[in-house]
Design a protein that fits this description.
Strand content: under 5%
Order of helices and strands: HHHHHHHHHHHHH
Organism: Psilocybe cyanescens
Shape: globular
Helix content: over 70%
CATH topology: Rhopdopsin 7-helix transmembrane proteins
Number of domains: 1
Keywords: Membrane, Transmembrane, Transmembrane helix
Protein name: THH1/TOM1/TOM3 domain-containing protein
CATH class: Mainly Alpha
Structural class: mainly alpha
Number of strands: 0
CATH architecture: Up-down Bundle
Low-confidence stretches: none
Distance between the termini: 62 Å
Radius of gyration: 20 Å
Length: 267
């Protein structure tokens, strides 16, 4: 009897309660995965490949979350809870870098002038951006996997990871706004006269994606010192899960992602 009462349901302690919500998101990501798998064959691009990985990770993460929310025995398995937290943290890498890549690719196609500011040169450096995201991912994974026994250290690393992702998300949104200014100034020959929905309204779609990513990261940053609020499903689903899936749906807009052979230089 004493052994049973000593067991902790980590999933319930973290606020995993809604089985239905987790199942719904699992199901919703399945057709999106199918769409990006298809696009990866017919329009093979980095963005489509990354979104296949992202959707796969989200299906796995929400399926695990559904099990954790619905099963008391599964919720007592700390390793499964940690795996779910890591999957949700790692996946954002692909979502953000897809937006970043699309903006830079459209800038190339629009034929805009090269950046003069040293800061903009750094921001537009894909290797540096990838490296910064990789650092954020590593810190996030380490903090999630070492959360017990090293509370203060893991908490600090968790906050640093969130701050890095927030800064990168803001920088990506800034670049999208700059691209929008170029388009609306009439300097873009590429975007004029396009017929497909993705090409015709590509910049507006990217602005919407950037706004959704900012909502997601603003929520993470605002609650990074309060794990109870951050894991509260009444806040977590509408402010993190919903913006993510809406962004993925926008990525699926036909014609949004240019073919690799359309780009003026190899990336």
């Amino acid at each position: 009897m004493a052994a049973n009462t000593d067991k902790i349901n980590y999933a319930k302690a973290l606020g995993f309660h809604s089985v239905a919500a987790a199942v719904i998101f699992t199901v919703l990501y399945v057709p999106l995965l199918g769409w990006f798998v298809r696009q990866s064959f017919f329009r093979p691009t980095y963005v489509h490949f990354v979104l296949v990985v992202f959707c796969t990770i989200r299906i796995a993460a929400f399926a695990i979350r559904a099990v954790l929310a619905g099963s008391s025995t599964a919720g007592e398995t700390l390793g499964l809870v940690i795996a779910d937290e890591i999957l949700f943290g790692v996946g954002y890498f692909g979502l953000l870098y897809s937006a970043y890549t699309l903006v830079l690719d459209l800038e190339l196609l629009c034929g805009g002038p090269p950046p003069r500011s040293p800061i903009l040169v750094l921001v537009k450096n894909r290797r540096i951006f990838r490296l910064a995201m990789l650092v954020a991912v590593v810190l996030g994974v380490y903090s999630a996997s070492h959360n017990n026994g090293q509370g203060s250290t893991s908490s600090a690393l968790h906050k640093v990871s969130i701050i890095i992702f927030l800064v990168l998300t803001v920088l990506q949104a800034f670049q999208t706004v700059m691209l929008a200014r170029t388009e609306y100034a009439g300097d873009s020959q590429y975007l004029q006269g396009q017929k497909s929905l993705g090409r015709k309204h590509g910049v507006m779609i990217l602005l919407a994606i950037s706004a959704l990513l900012l909502v997601r990261e603003a929520f993470s940053a605002a609650t990074m010192s309060n794990s109870t609020k951050q894991d509260n499903e009444h806040l977590w689903y509408p402010l993190l899960a919903v913006p993510e899936i809406l962004a993925v749906i926008l990525y699926a807009t036909p014609g949004l992602v240019p073919k690799r052979d359309e780009l003026p230089s190899p990336q």
